[in-house]
Design a protein that fits this description.
It catalyses: ATP + protein L-histidine = ADP + protein N-phospho-L-histidine. Pfam families: HATPase_c, HisKA_3. Helix 10 links the parallel strand 1 (261-264) and strand 2. The protein has three domains: 2-133, no CATH class; 171-240, Single alpha-helices involved in coiled-coils or other helix-helix interfaces (Up-down Bundle), CATH 1.20.5.1930; 244-365, Heat Shock Protein 90. It is α+β, with helices and mostly antiparallel strands and 368 residues long. A five-stranded mixed β-sheet has the order 1-2-3-5-4, covered by helices on one side. The chain is built from twelve helices and five strands.
């Protein structure tokens, strides 16, 4: 199977490059003159391939061992008139950065430096002879490159962990909200329904024996029903209303954790005051948009602009990221959720990818 010979996640980006490197190395080992016997050349090239294969798949001490084998072959062929082989140290330099273990990356950098020192000791009698040659900037890049790769992978890992933590926090918040709703139902509507049940049973008993008493009990049932309806409305309102300023503050904190600055062009409070339903829909759309910024944009800043038109309110979210393709915009549920919310209040959604990032604008009519 092809993914057993080569890592599947690297096929699209690195397979062709690695094949070219292996072919060039074979050409230079077997074509250029060297003091080594042909069988020794074959053995050294096989060692090179085995070391490279080990580095492709391993991310622990075996990666370091494979790197030593690869660099050893490069050093053997760099001693003499062809130090160009040292340039191929970029291959293990890249792989030394593809590990989660810092000591592996540091060890790889040290062995790259030692390889150059050994070659120049044999060629010029000075292990630091590369300082006065064009190999110095090459060596510097080979030592910096693993650090860059390692740092980039760590940043991606932290971003994935941040996304997981954010999702877990949302799940916990939802669970806490469910528990709160259950308590409210038990403490308010549960008690009211118990009263209605008891009063109804009493009125049933008194309806023939004492009609006046039955009427009084039924009046209490009506009053309790009205009270229950009021409690239900209050509970629904507490469940559905979302404050736009609070949602912006939450989004600002969340984006700050992800390394993204969030700016607001329109200060709160908004004038005229928004209808609770309108504000809730805008707040939920803002939440979904900022979540997409974190997940997809790779942006460093995001700006939210709220404009009061004569008959409508518009909210624009603009980031400076890479934008989104049509496939990514239509495949997820985020944009669909925003559209559905806007449809409920006769609002509109407009979005586009610009050279400066991704822009989404929602417009809602003013409600009395």
């Amino acid at each position: 199977m092809p993914w057993k010979l080569y890592p599947r996640d690297q096929m699209n980006h690195l397979l062709f490059f690695d094949l070219v490197v292996c072919l060039f190395l074979a050409f230079q080992i077997f074509y250029y003159p060297s003091p080594y016997h042909p069988l020794l050349k074959i053995a050294s090239y096989l060692l090179l391939l085995i070391s490279f294969y080990t580095m492709l798949w391993q991310r622990d001490w075996r990666l370091v061992l494979g790197g030593i084998g690869f660099l050893g072959v490069l050093a053997a062929y760099s001693i003499g008139p062809n130090p160009f082989f040292l340039n191929y140290a970029f291959v293990p330099a890249d792989l030394f950065g593809r590990t989660r273990k810092k000591w592996v990356t540091v060890s790889g950098i040290v062995f790259i430096l030692l390889t150059h020192m050994i070659v120049f000791q044999f060629n010029e009698g000075n292990p630091f002879g590369f300082i006065d040659s064009f190999h110095l900037p090459v060596l510097i890049l080979q030592m910096i490159y693993p650090v860059l790769i390692f740092s980039r992978r760590q940043a991606k890992q932290l971003k994935r962990e941040l996304t997981d933590v954010t999702e877990e926090n949302r799940r916990l918040i939802q669970e806490q909200e469910r528990q709160r709703i259950a308590r409210d139902l038990h403490d308010t509507l549960g008690q009211t329904m118990t009263i209605i049940k008891m009063k109804s049973e009493l009125s049933t008993r008194y309806i023939d024996k004492n009609p006046e008493k039955a009427k009084a009990e039924l009046a209490d049932v009506i009053q309790a029903s009205r009270s229950g309806l009021t409690q239900l409305r209050e509970l629904v309102a507490s469940m559905t209303y979302v404050s736009l300023p609070k949602e912006f503050d939450s989004g600002q904190e969340l984006l700050h954790t992800a390394g993204i600055q969030l700016y607001l062009k329109h200060p709160f409070p908004i004038t005229p005051k928004l209808h609770p339903v309108t504000e809730t829909m805008l707040a939920l759309s803002l939440r979904e948009s900022l979540t997409n910024v974190i997940k997809h944009s790779q942006a460093t800043s995001c700006r939210v602009t709220i404009v009061d038109h004569s008959e409508a309110i518009s909210m624009t979210i603009m980031d400076n990221g890479r934008g989104q393709t049509e496939a990514s915009m239509t495949s997820g549920t985020g944009l669909l959720s925003i559209r559905e919310r806007m449809t409920l209040i006769s609002g509109t959604v407009h979005y586009e990818t610009k050279p400066t990032g991704f822009m989404l604008r929602v417009t809602v009519p003013k409600m009395e």
